[in-house]
Amino acid sequence: MITIRKASPADALGITIVNVYTWDTAYRGLVPQQVIDERIRHLQTRAAVTKETIAAQDNFLVATEDDTIIGFCMFGSARAEAYAGMGEVYALYVLEGFQGKHIGKALFLAGIKALQAMGYSSLIINCLRGNPALAFYRHMGGGADRATHG
């Protein structure tokens, strides 16, 4: 059974493993392999940073199956000044073997609900050009910002 819940600092390593693995499967050929390899090599350091971020900001949700993290969503205030006053989904990743089972949708909707609880009525998502998840974001109601996607 899939469960969506708030992340705790103890989830940091699982979140980081999902992040690194999904970068390898989703972005291969879109970003230099060296960038992906560096993320893998620095997994422990990245997990420590994630642990600190969760403790300080409380802005992660995780999807679990049998208490194992299979996806996550990170959200907060929009980082780009052009989108001041909006919320942002910073990251939304689901392990490849679990995609297509509405887990990403559940995480996305839970992230939107959390952003609404924070007072945001609109949000942005930065999406790498060529990202295979672009169709998912469009299906969820997103559109391309001409200023950033030409």
Task: Tag the structure with descriptive keywords.
150 residues, single chain, disordered C terminus, Aminopeptidase, globular, alpha+beta, five-stranded mixed beta sheet
- Count of β-strands: 5
Task: Describe the main β-sheet briefly.
Answer: 5 strands, mixed
Number of helices: 6
Q: Distance N terminus to C terminus? A: 41 Å
Question: Biggest sheet, strands in spatial order?
Answer: 1-2-3-4-5
SSE topology string: EHHHEEEHEHH
**Any idea what the CATH architecture is?**
3-Layer(aba) Sandwich
Q: How many structural domains are formed by the residues?
A: 1
Q: Provide the CATH superfamily.
A: Gcn5-related N-acetyltransferase (GNAT)
CATH topology: Aminopeptidase
> What class would the helix/strand composition place it in?
alpha+beta
Helix-strand blueprint:
Layout: E1 2-6, H1 12-26, H2 33-41, H3 43-57, E2 60-65, E3 68-77, E4 87-94, H4 103-117, E5 123-124, H5 134-139, H6 146-149
Parallel strand pairs: 4-5
Antiparallel strand pairs: 1-2, 2-3, 3-4
Helix pairs in contact: 1-2, 1-3
